[in-house]
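for the writeup, i need someone to sanity check this before i put it in the appendix. the sequnce is what the collaborator sent (i think, or maybe the updated version? ugh). structure was predicted straight from it, no edits. if anything looks off just tell me and ill rerun, i have time this weekend
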Amino acid sequence: MLTNVIQWEVASMADEKSGLAVNKFGERYGLTARETELFRALVLFGLRNEEIGAMFHIAPKTVKNHMTCMMGKTRTHSSRELQALFLRFVLNQQATN
């Protein structure tokens, strides 16, 4: 369980390279700014809805709603599929550069 919210927030903001990849992914699939923030926590740390909710001071149900919207936009059915899609996206980006 997430015990030190400040440490996680700082760590997520410090990683500019992965943050850029998450932002590009968000733009590609039409994610809102808030969805992109939550997706970043999911991808970088593999946090559960309760932990993401604690990190962003929102209810786990709200996180679940955001995740459902993200999965709809990306046509995925689980957070694992969403993470796999992101990995394929990043690998594609590296191959084209």
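Residues 12 and 44 are 7 Å apart (CA to CA). The helical segments are 5-14, 16-29, 33-45, 49-56, 60-74, 79-96.
thx in advance!!
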